[in-house]
Design a protein that fits this description.
The structure is a single chain. This protein has about 70 residues and is mainly α. It is built from two helices and no strands.
Length: about 70
């Protein structure tokens, strides 16, 4: 009985550490890819807007490609 008492707080803290690490892992697994996808999506729109501003593409091409990017 004397040995069990000092181990209980350590096991309790270990349990919470594992639980929090699992929660952080789940958040990273689901949130990080969505953030990366949004950044990639936004960068495509920025590049398209820059090409339109430089006159590389006309208004019709801009609208068509913008619509394609927004529907992805």
């Amino acid at each position: 009985m004397d040995i069990a008492f000092p181990l209980f707080p350590i096991i309790f803290l270990l349990f919470w550490f594992v639980l929090l690490a699992a929660a952080a892992g789940l958040v990273a697994y689901f949130v990080v890819p969505a953030v990366i996808q949004k950044i990639r999506h936004d960068s495509g729109l920025v590049i398209l807007e820059q090409r339109f501003a430089r006159g590389e593409i006309d208004s019709e091409e801009f609208k068509k490609r913008r619509q394609e990017l927004l529907t992805r």
